[in-house]
Amino acid sequence: MTKKVLVPIAPGTEEMEAVTIIDMMVRAGYQTVVASADFDGQLTMKASRGVTLTADCKLVDIADDEFDAVILPGGVQGSETFRDSTVLVEIVRQQMYEGKLVAAICAAPALVLAHHGLYPEALMTCHPSFESHIPAKNWRVKRVTYDVNHNLLTSQGPGTALEFAMEVIINLSGKAHAWTVAEPMVTIPTLQYHKLGDE
């Protein structure tokens, strides 16, 4: 059965993170829904460095859909919009209650998850400049951090986006499937994506 993932975007979303995540979810064969969290309902918007991003639909239109993963790209302005979106926060909260994967990168773990106290016991990372937003007992200095007990995946920034997206694929479909995505991309050998199958 095809996995279904949600990637919300907003004005000021970090484009390298958003595009890497979306691209790799598509490469993995997932049904990838890019939804606008823009309060004005605009589907086309400027990302943090001025690149134009276009969503498939408005977030409110898919609020009742079920997803195997909800993946939040970062960017300060975009994360602040996510933080202030009652629809998105409720989607993430429902995903959490159902034990399904939530993934967030860069500013999003701090400005969305930590701000709303959604994972008070979970281990997480975020962009180093937002470390102070994460309680010390929860903070991990890792490029990609997965808390298996809470099914929460977090990462640090644009330079970790590929590793982050690959870990989403490993989580949803296993290492063997992740390798079919990684190999033709000629990923960094030290990322250790290989043909050993699910472990």
From TrEMBL:
It comes from the Bacteria. This is DJ-1/PfpI domain-containing protein. GO terms for cellular component: cytoplasm. Keywords: Repeat. SUPFAM superfamilies: Class I glutamine amidotransferase-like (SSF52317). Residues 3-169 form the DJ-1/PfpI domain. Gene3D superfamilies: 3.40.50.880.
